[in-house]
Write a structure and sequence with these properties.
The protein is mainly α and 420 residues long. The chain is built from 18 helices and no strands.
Amino acid sequence: MNNPFLLALKEKSFLFLWLSEAFSQIAMNMLNFILILLVFTLTNSNTAVSGVVLSFTIPAIIFGILAGVYVDHWNKKFVLFGTNILRFGLLILLAIFHKNLPTVYTLSFLSAIVTQFFIPAETPMIPLLVKKEILFAANALFSMAWFGAVLVAYALSGPFLLLFGKTNALLALAVIFLVASVFALLIKVPKIVEKKQIKRAQNFNFIAEVKKAFAVILKIRDVSHAFSLLILSQILIIIISVIGPGYAKQILHINIESFPLLFVTPAVVGMAFGSYIVTNFFSQFSRHKSATLGLLFAAITVFLMPYGSDVASKGFIHFINGILPFHWHISILNIMMLLAFGLGFSNSFIFVPSNTLIQEQTSDAVRGKIYGALNTAASLISLIPVIIVGSLADLFGVGTVLTVLAILIAVIGLFRSIFL
């Protein structure tokens, strides 16, 4: 059995961790989408929807690094189990009180706080459960599950709510969290790791732990570069999400409601395909060069996004359409889906090597803090594009914003290719 993905999944504890992640991420993403729909139904107010979005984004800024510090002193297996059980309980309460807006905000906020402890316990466990030679494949599988969960949430949140109704939909999500907790409980962590965690729990100084985390990030070049790339990857995703409706309307001329599924689906497929390629053909390649390649490819993809209609109108496209069967037709929508696939593909070349670098260069004693800091930094920095990108797109046009974004990504990629 030489396939690295199969080798990773053959490790039972990793398989249980992967399944726990998949179920948790599906439930969490669906919950966020359903909360948005729920609050809008209750209030018919975009301001109220902004409030619920803030309720599950602000906790990452406030509690991310704090959660990472504490998780490094706890048994990460039981953190995963406990956070899923707590979210199960909060969803039960939300199902009962979902008609009361202040209660919805409160329970959403509490659920998001619990999630901050889940995040630094999840990915840092991977190196504890798989051999070093299949660590790359394990991270690729995690990236597939993460982005696949987003796809499932996008695709199923609306139908899920219509099919089950608000109360039953929330109860069903609670059950999904419960299933995730069962898989977490089945994980077997090496005993030597558990002994070290107990010893660390006896020597705890919060300020010293935070300093230790940032010292590792700043002093180890591989870690600092991977840390920055993961933040950049998240910012890119957020920017595309923010200007997505404008892109659909101004450039693609399609219904805004159709954009998430039509764009996210090929992007996730591209992410999965890219994860397969980067694992099977680039695992022995320099992690930095793989990530730089991903950046440059992302820059090209983003640069082409505003010009889909121009490409669709070219003579060679008309020629191809003329020789294709009647029901096959290349349109701007097909081109957009191809670019979305390319964006997901390029992101896998950033996401997988960067996570692997952090895990290879850090110990279990500090890994949770680094991922907690990453969560805080990414959430905090992401506020900037959320606040200004929409206004810039309104002022200068979506195409201009995408072109500038592509140039910035290309500059970073070229800088890395020259100096790293």
